[in-house]
Amino acid sequence: MKKRLLALLLAALMVLSMAACAGSNTSSETPSTQEPASNTTTETPAAENNNGGVATAPADPATEELADEQVFHYYMGSEPSTLDPWMNNSGSASIIIAAIHEPMLRPSLEGEGWEPGLCDSYEKSEDSTVHTLHLREGAKWEDGTDITVEDIYNSYLRVLNPELGSSIAYRYFPILNAEEYYMGEATEQELGIKIRDGNLIQFTTKKPYDYFVDMMTSDGFAPVQTAAAEAYGDMYGTDVDKIVASGPFKLVEWTHQHSMVLEKNENYWDAENVKLETLDVTITVDQNTIMGMFQNGELSLFKVGNELLPQYADDPTLETDTRLKVTFIEFNPRNEFLANKNIREAFSIAFDRQIFAEQVMHNGKLAAYGLVPYGVRGVDGGDFREQNGNIVTDASDPSEIERAQQLLDTGLEELGKTVEELQEGFSIQCLESGKTQAQAIQNMWKTNLGVEMPVSVVDFNVLLPMLMEGTFDCVIGGGQDSNYRDPEGFMNFIYEEGKWDDPEFLALMEKVQTQTGDERIQTWMEIERLVLENFIYIPQVYAENNWVFQSNVRGVKIFTYGYEFDFKDVYLVKE
Amino acid sequence: MLRYTVKRFLSMLLTLFLVATATFFLMHAIPGQPFEVTRETPESVKEAMMAKYGLDKPLFEQYLIYMKNLLHGDFGVSMKYKGQTVTGTVTSGMPASAVIGFGGVILGCLIGSVLGALAALKNKGFVDYFVIVLAILGVSVPNFVFASLIQRIFAVQWKLFPIQGWKGLSYAVLPILAATFTNIAHYARMLRTSMLDTMGQDYIATAKSKGLSQSEIVRKHMLRNSFLPLVTTLGPMLAGCLTGNFVIEKIFNVPGLGQSMILAIQNSDYTMIMGLTIIFSFISIIGYFLVDIVYGLVDPRIRIAG
Questions:
Q1: CATH number of B86-302
Q2: Which residues in A lie closer than 8 A to residue B82 (C-beta atoms)?
Q3: Per-residue pLDDT reduced to its tens digit, A6-52
């Protein structure tokens, strides 16, 4: 009898520890936009509108009235290391930064992708190298002083001073002579930023930048008050008393590693249209806690992870937003086996993206057959991905498997090597977070090609130099995301890293730097095809986030690039 | 006693010095840097950042600078969270961690000891098996499972306590309960074994043959001797109180110390790692020092020679 009781308890214990494992999986999901997103829905991946963003249902003024308490409860997975727009490199902090600091222009879900922000007009020269913005009249800082063009100008001088120590200073290098100024090789006069009469600020870029407007809508280019920046230096934005708001909200409380409270900024230029009084932010990473808070109404939104998606699939408040990100397998052509294009192509085909997306990422429509995700500007205002089509083929078409096997045989023959030598010849590198992905792909290669490569988990700080110096073999789960809705963001890194010296590629890259408009996009399409047809970068999946909201929430704007949420138009209705 | 204290104090300083030195060099041997580097970061920015943090200097020079600052009591500022000093992080995180840590240990020790003693006295009875099962559960169920479980039941379903946060006494109940659970198991198991061991000793047989009543034997002879192993664990427990509950702190979003260390290591936040290691070592050493003294009080046989 006693034995049976013990057995029962042990069984209960096993169930508990299994629950523990499930718990640990979900808890790694945080609302940070830097994490690889991996969610499921059944909608098409095409952008839902021009900019691919979504907005929660607008209110019907006839039937709904404002709730008495206008408080939105938001959460984030980790403490922002700074709320200084010019120092921040975290996607989750961007959302708070953009709520406090008004960007030069606001991103928009319609039209050209922007609407007035701190500036009310934007013009670019025909060759896309000179960009002029007009600062709106009467815009004020939180403390009631005027926002001036000098504040904008000084923000750039500040970040381009190496003494500030901004790890993202390079993001401002598109401006003419910015890198030279940073390195002390150019003077302030040579810098491509000028104040012009009539509250104008003018940027000259070092090459044509069609998507300069995307930079202007990002939180990273939102000016900071000169007086505050001078007073706090690199400490600006690190605490509640070291930040001066220009956006719809101001920071009033910050308990580090725990919570933040933002309140409506009465001195905001568009304060009369801001209905939300308080934005309450909980900093917590535990997924069970977050879900419990949402169920108790203590959170206004909740990021639905893979495992939970079926449970929320029919939720009317479910919003899916694609994030501009792609993950890929990267082969090192310096490896003696991977130097052979036939072998690389064989591995690319033997990787079945469709099954990978469905079973590993739990979302079939994320399967990536190109390097540039959906939602990026294409020719004639269309979608780049739709226009350039699916470029790579894979084992989801069964006839391709045979071809892959033939390619592998041909490749090995060319090298005079055997399958056994190939298996010893290279290993798969991945991060701890990408281990499941790597094992799934390892398994596909084994099934489809009959070769098994060992997987080794490497720390990010070890992997990065390996990638940069070219001492890796095959990295699974690497990725590229972009703050801008432009194909350049997904391919320029190949050129910048300089590992691939194919003359055709280099010629196209040099050509694209000088082009503008549709011509430029078309060259990028050529480059994408060239890159993918060389099978060095093998696309895996695109990214997507899924959110559910409390039913009384209205007006949340969700963007596919840059900062994910805009709270300016948020309000709550009576139920 | 004074000589002993002075000797202990000096060896403590030496230990701290060795800990600081070892941590400094080990930490710099780990790949990575306190600021984020991506595939896009150009060399010019990397170099400027290294210079900004003084990481471009030879390692030994960095070590000397750090030690000099340390002698002045300056632990420095976090490299990742620039607004937060090491001492500030410790002082702001200490109270919450201490409440949960000490609450958990004290409650766990009390309940666990009672259960352990009962189990030993009713050896092989129902109570004994109950305690054994409880101890197995307590030791093998990870505390984040238990913490999530009580959070779901008491906070989400019954809404008796807040889910997360740190704004008053009611916020401390569930975290302390979660911290207590593992401790109960730990102490119950330990005291049970220790009591059973004591029961077999000759002096208990002597006491029995002297004609002492059962309760007198338990109170005067058994308990005191059985508590000795418990006292030994108090030293590491003291440091563990402040840093050992990081999972519980994470689940209930308690602004405590536990997570600071984990975060610091993840971020290669050099100053934070150094500062926290030294402070935690200090607390541990003090813990051991106290244990030595308490040991003497509990067990006259090993009273320290002056």
A1: 1.10.3720.10
A2: 81-82, 234-235, 238
A3: 444 444 444 444 444 433 333 333 333 333 333 333 333 333 344 55
Which of A2, A76, A256 would you mutate first to test chain B, the one with the most B CBs within 10 A? Answer: A256
B137 in contact with chain A, both atoms CB, cutoff 8 A:
yes
CA nearest to A211, candidates A388, A376, A78, A374: A376
Residues of chain A neighbouring B81 (CB-CB closer than 8 A): 79, 81-82, 238, 256
In chain A, residues with a C-beta closer than 8 Å to the C-beta of B140 are 13, 17
Distance CA A419, CA A559 (A): 47
**Number of structural domains chain A divides into:** 2
Provide the CATH number for the domain around residue A88. Answer: 3.90.76.10
Comparison of pLDDT for A47 and A489, the residue scoring more: A489
pLDDT digits (tens, 9 = 90+) for B65-96: 989 988 888 888 888 888 888 888 888 888 99
Q: Which of A170, A205, A238 is the last residue of a domain?
A: A238
Write b or e for each residue in A65-83: b if 16 or more Cβ atoms lie within 10 A of its Cβ, otherwise e.
Answer: eebeebebbbbbbbbbbbb
In this complex, do A259 and B165 lie within 8 Å of one another by their Cβ atoms?
A: yes
Quick one: pLDDT band at residue B168, thresholds 50, 70, 90? confident
Rounded Cα distance, A506 and A277, in Å: 53
Among A residues 26-85, those touching chain B with beta carbons less than 8 Å apart: 79, 81-82
Rounded distance between C-alpha atoms, residue A529 and residue A330, angstroms: 16
ipTM above 0.90, yes or no: no
Question: For residue B188, what is the enclosing H or E element?
Answer: helix B169-199
Q: Tell me, what amino acid is at A546?
A: N
Both A361 and A509 in a single domain? yes
Q: Is residue A37 part of a domain?
A: no
Same domain, A529 and A392: yes
Q: To the nearest whole angstrom, how far is the Cα of A172 from the nearest Cα of chain B?
A: 11
What is the domain-level CATH number for residue A473? 3.10.105.10
User: What percent of chain B stands above pLDDT 90?
Assistant: 35
Q: How many CB pairs under 8 A join A and B?
A: 148
In a domain, A49, yes or no: no
* A336/A219 same-domain check: no
Residues A265-272, mean pLDDT to the nearest whole number: 97
- Note whether residue A283 is domain-resident: no
Please give, rounded to a whole number of angstroms, the shortest distance from the CA of B182 to a CA of chain A: 15
Which range of residues forms the domain containing residue A458?
Answer: 322-544
Residue A200 has pLDDT above 80, yes or no: yes
Query: Residue B182 pLDDT more than 80?
Result: yes
